[in-house]
Amino acid sequence: MTDTGDAIAVYVHWPYCARICPYCDFNVVRDRGWREEQAVLVEAILCDLEAQAALVGRRPLASIFFGGGTPSLMRAEDVGRVIARARALFPGGDVEITLEANPTDAEAAHFAALREAGVNRLSLGVQSLDDAQLTFLGRNHSADEARRAIAVAAGVFDRLSIDLIYALPGQTVAGWTTAMAEALAMGFEHVSPYQLTIAEGTAFARAAERGGLIPPDEDTAADLYEATQSVLGAAGFEAYEVSNHARGVSARSAHNLHVWRGGDYVGIGPGAHGRLTLDGVRTATVAHRRIGDYVEGVAAGTPWSEQERLDPRAAAEERLLLGLRTVEGVALTDLAALDLTALVEGLVEDGLLAVAEERVVATATGRPVLDAVLKALLT
Ligand SMILES: C[S@@+](CC[C@H](N)C(=O)[O-])C[C@H]1O[C@@H](n2cnc3c(N)ncnc32)[C@H](O)[C@@H]1O
Ligand code: SF4
Q1: 30, 35, 195, 232: which has the highest count of C-beta atoms within 10 A?
Q2: How many Å lie between the centroid of ligand 1 and the Cα of residue 361?
Q3: DSSP letters along 302-344, please?
């Protein structure tokens, strides 16, 4: 049993990007303006949505999330069609509908149409408000362009989140603190500061191997994390998850909370991950990553390249990994298959975990060392 009841969320992956960033290991392809291919993909997405809805039945809609890639490059009309289809298949009221956007002038010009199509929350990939850092990150927008996009988005959407990337080579606590202060003056309800990850197979990983990119050492990274917590906390943004800060409970992302609480979600689009309860068994799904394979797979009734029935231990481990990242923690009953009582007691004594109302949560001391806490629990 999860905290999310019968509700189901919808994740839609749009893989196209105007430019591929050197740090990104998401399932992305460069947008070459091939509108026919994109029109075919939209039809496949609609068809996949119908097929998965038939599989899981008519359940209440929790939320919709358009991620990517760069879904702000989708035609607003297509976004509207996907939303309408999801609403028709899963009954729901006024649910949160988020779309990820890149902060270019061209995309900002499109925000009102996306709002009109039904999107009610925008997640803007600002990453930095410093031109040198944006160049280093290989972004296709300037800091001024990002500032303009934030202003446009704030005028169009009641609910606005921005993503920032920190722990860049050479970044100091003072520099990051000033950067956050500038961003925080711009008016949004939610911010996701992500520590730069050097992901395998990316251009940054190759540069790091050659010694051309040196990320901050562990101590500096820990100091930058601490600065993030204190600056955002002082500005009224609560860290309700390790990398997600909201100004008040209503500003928390309903979609992400649904996922972190162990709720079911259909993953639609190339490479999208889903979690479905099928015949009473929690099942992990991964759609074909290549656009052509996905389109063919959907047509053949086989959209997934992977489908794994999670045994109770694997399902409980996943609940633990996600739940401990949040202020809500995880219900002890969800962890029954793992038999963690003695280990949890030890970590409570160490001040890294706390147990209250039959839930276990990571403490302020435990959160920065969550990887080590999880390792202690799971190995
Ligand atoms: C998959 S991207 C989609 C959003 C949009 N395409 C963009 O780039 O603005 C979602 C977010 O993941 C974060 N991200 C992606 N790769 C990352 C990495 N290697 N390290 C840290 N954050 C990363 C960025 O902050 C980005 O905004
Ligand atoms: S970070 Fe965003 S824009 Fe850059 S390649 Fe990844 S998904 Fe595309």
Answers
A1: 232
A2: 27
A3: --EEEEEEPPHHHHHHHHHHHHTTBTT-EEGGGGGGG--HHHH
